[in-house]
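Title: Comparing notes on inverse folding

I've been comparing how different people in this forum approach sequence design from structure. To keep things fair, I'm posting one structure and asking everyone to reply with a full sequence. Here's the target:
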């Protein structure tokens, strides 16, 4: 007879755990980690100095409301700080939103190749994740709206999307919002917004400012290079902030992370250098891989999705093994329903050139 023991809530053991991009290449002296969309330029030196300074006083609790950080974000974007909530990265905030607005039997919609944390957070709250199909690896407004039912409480939209790098223009986001019932929360996850250089893109600030059911997520992990500190924030209507502050952990942002975030968001020069570097090398890598005959999904973020041929021995799995042996670590995206593709972060100049040279060798292209 099996002994009784505590059991998790129904559905928890059905969740496939989130697996981060790998970071090692056994037996290789120098590894280029291109699997997690990290900044090749790293954080602002000001952020590092601020982090070190606070590190001298680790005995003190942080400000439970992250007041100074919210004020810094508000100054940078012209926002009301009372409508900003900060957290330990976007993952923390996605789970906070799900906990606050989903219960058993509810539904939440996300797109086919959307961020894997969405279904994890949805299922963990006893709700049902509902997948909307995409068109050309891009979220499709009509498909999303067709999945909305009276049980729908949240729609998650990553814009730009990870791992595809595609985006919806602002007029399509507004069309999506207009088609949703007023009691459905639209979550715009704009983790890669700073990299987008398109005139028809807007991260979501305007829509949040004029709506009662839109929330915009942002992160310090990408453009600001602070992934190790786990720092994110969202901008939302006052009533949503009031509700979620009631269940938010009181010290969910550490003092070193807050100090580094304040310094990072104030270093506009470092931000602009990071944007310019990404723009230059995103275009270069895309062009060079196309010369090799590889299909690359057009990306507006700091990564690209590379599609491999169906030729035996030349697929994504074989390419990943070939690259890893050379210290070039990329991201398999099978879990995103993209079994024959790899996601590559835009890395340093050295890393980018090595990837192109290695893939030329892998494909057997003449020099």
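Reply #1:
Here's my take.
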């Amino acid at each position: 007879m099996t002994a009784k023991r505590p059991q998790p809530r129904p559905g928890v053991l059905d969740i496939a755990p989130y697996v981060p991009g790998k970071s090692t290449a056994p037996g290789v002296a120098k590894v280029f980690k291109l699997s997690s969309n990290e900044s090749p330029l790293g954080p602002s030196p000001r952020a590092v100095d601020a982090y070190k300074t606070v590190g001298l006083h680790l005995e003190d609790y942080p400000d439970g409301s992250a007041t100074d950080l919210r004020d810094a974000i508000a100054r940078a974007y012209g926002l009301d700080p009372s409508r900003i909530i900060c957290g330990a990265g976007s993952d923390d905030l996605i789970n906070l939103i799900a906990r606050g607005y989903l219960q058993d039997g509810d539904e939440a919609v996300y797109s086919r190749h959307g961020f894997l944390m969405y279904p994890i957070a949805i299922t963990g709250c006893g709700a049902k994740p509902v997948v909307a199909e995409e068109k050309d690896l891009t979220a499709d407004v009509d498909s999303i709206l067709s999945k909305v039912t009276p049980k729908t409480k949240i729609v998650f939209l990553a814009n730009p999307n990870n791992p595809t790098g595609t985006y919806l223009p602002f007029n399509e986001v507004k069309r999506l919002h207009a088609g949703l019932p007023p009691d459905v929360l639209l979550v715009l996850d704009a983790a890669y917004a700073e990299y987008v250089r398109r005139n028809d893109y807007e991260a979501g600030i305007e829509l949040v400012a004029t709506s009662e059911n839109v929330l915009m997520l942002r992160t310090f992990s990408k453009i600001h290079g602070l992934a190790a500190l786990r720092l994110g924030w969202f901008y939302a209507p006052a009533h949503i902030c009031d509700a979620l502050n009631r269940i938010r952990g009181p010290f969910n942002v550490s003092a070193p992370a807050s100090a580094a975030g304040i310094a990072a968001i104030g270093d506009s020069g470092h931000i602009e250098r990071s944007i310019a570097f990404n723009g230059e090398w995103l275009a270069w890598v895309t062009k060079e891989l196309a010369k090799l005959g590889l299909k690359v999904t057009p990306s507006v973020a700091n990564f690209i999705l590379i599609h491999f041929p169906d030729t035996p021995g030349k697929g994504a799995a074989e390419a990943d093994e070939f690259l890893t042996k050379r210290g070039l670590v990329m991201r398999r995206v099978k879990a995103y329903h993209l079994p024959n593709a790899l996601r590559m972060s835009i890395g340093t100049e050295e890393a980018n050139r090595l990837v192109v040279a290695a893939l030329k060798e892998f494909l057997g292209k003449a020099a």
